[in-house]
């Protein structure tokens, strides 16, 4: 059966970390992309929402202040949702890894690969 880890198959397919040659890609995603998504984007959303609210307060227009407050609340909700995306992706990766066919001798578990990367 063809699985994801045959792409980076090294020799007999046994790799210590369980990633089969995909460790650099998984490391970039887990240690590079996810922290930016989890921390950077929510901070930017809240900062931009605060700037919009500050501009509206300075303009002294009640209608504009209410719209800016509404946008800030929506951006805070989006920031919290984006913050938890990495947790959701990690859970999905674990479920997909456990659901794989483990009957073959060289089949590596995606969850083992995902969890072995620090």
Rounded to the nearest angstrom, the radius of gyration is 22 Å
Structural class: mainly alpha
The coarse overall form would be elongated
Oligomer: single chain
Bin the strand percentage: under 5%
First-last Cα distance: 29 Å
Following the backbone from N to C, one meets helices and strands in this order, namely HHHH
- Number of DSSP helical runs: 4
Q: Which segments are poorly predicted (pLDDT under 50) over 5 or more consecutive residues?
A: 5-15
Instruction: Tell me, rounded to a whole number, the average pLDDT.
Output: 77
- Report the major sheet: none
Helix content: 55-70%
Question: What is the strand tally?
Answer: 0
General description of the model:
The protein has 118 residues and is mainly alpha-helical. It has a domain of 75 residues. It is built from four helices and no strands. Helix 1 packs antiparallel against helix 2 and helix 3 crosses helix 4. The two termini are 29 Å apart. About 9% of the residues have low confidence.
């Amino acid at each position: 059966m063809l699985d994801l880890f045959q792409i980076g198959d090294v020799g007999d397919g046994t790799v210590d970390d369980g990633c089969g040659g995909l460790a650099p890609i998984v490391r970039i995603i887990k240690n590079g992309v996810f922290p930016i998504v989890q921390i950077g984007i929510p901070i930017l959303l809240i900062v931009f929402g605060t700037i919009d609210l500050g501009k509206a307060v300075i303009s002294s227009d009640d209608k504009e202040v209410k719209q800016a407050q509404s946008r800030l609340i929506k951006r805070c909700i989006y920031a919290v949702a984006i913050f938890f995306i990495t947790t959701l992706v990690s859970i999905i990766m674990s479920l997909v890894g456990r659901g794989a066919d483990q009957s073959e001798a060289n089949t590596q578990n995606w969850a083992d690969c995902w969890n072995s990367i620090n």
